[in-house]
Write a structure and sequence with these properties.
Blueprint (H helix, E strand, L loop, with lengths): L2 H26 L4 E5 L3 E11 L2 E18 L5 E13 L4 E12 L1 H7 L3 H8 E4 L3 E3 L4 E9 L9 E11 L4 E11 L9 E2 L1 E3 L1
Antiparallel strand pairs: 1-3, 2-3, 2-11, 3-8, 4-5, 4-7, 4-9, 5-6, 5-8, 9-10, 10-12
């Protein structure tokens, strides 16, 4: 082989390699999810009722925060579910607690209506939670609200939380850990920002 033929072969192989890399990036790269979020904000939405003519009710603990989803791959993929699970510790007990997505809201409206459960549903909700389909190199941003079961009386305590996502593979992936300490003013409309645990 002559030097010219060797040089031609090297350039051809380099071009073939660059074509293969380009094909991978534009058409074959699998779904590659990245999620970035602000720290959650803990609140307790009051549900007011009456019992035998007396004021009554309960509180629904909620976490809300902005979340950005990005698919770095060239194939579409599905974010099946999200969850925040952890431990609630009070003076008298420790128990597991799970928060599940309730819906996506308009953040400025939600800030104004957060203390009133029904007003926030009526005015701030943009859609209920359901899986998110992301196309190739697509990005989507939402302000999500997660909720847990009801609390029947005010108390002080702390939460240790883990934020996780489940994609089409069906595996849960840890995204971040948080902790927050709160007091009884949570049940009067105050909110608490969760701290990131490194």
């Amino acid at each position: 082989m002559t030097n010219a033929e060797i040089l031609t072969l090297v350039f051809s192989l380099a071009a073939l390699f660059l074509s293969a890399v380009s094909l991978w990036r534009t058409s074959l790269a699998p779904f590659d999810l990245r999620i970035v979020n602000a720290p959650p904000l803990l609140a307790a939405q009051h549900v007011k009722t009456t019992c035998d003519g007396q004021p009554a009710g309960w509180w629904i603990p909620t976490l809300d925060f902005g979340v950005s989803f990005r698919n770095l791959g060239s194939r579409a993929g599905l974010v099946r579910d999200l969850r925040i699970s952890g431990q609630l510790q009070t003076e008298s007990a420790e128990q597991s607690i799970d928060f599940h997505p309730d819906g996506m809201v308009d953040f400025p409206t939600y800030q104004q209506t957060r203390p009133d459960r029904f007003e926030s549903i009526d005015q701030a909700r943009r859609r209920d939670w359901y899986p998110i389909l992301l196309g190739a190199n697509e990005q989507a941003e939402y302000h999500l609200v997660f909720q847990s079961g009801s609390w029947v009386r005010p108390f002080s305590g702390s939460l240790v939380l883990r934020f996780e996502a489940c994609t089409e593979k069906g595996e849960w992936t840890k995204l971040a850990d948080y902790r927050v300490k709160f007091f009884e003013d949570l049940f009067e409309g105050d909110t608490y920002v969760c701290e990131v645990v490194e």
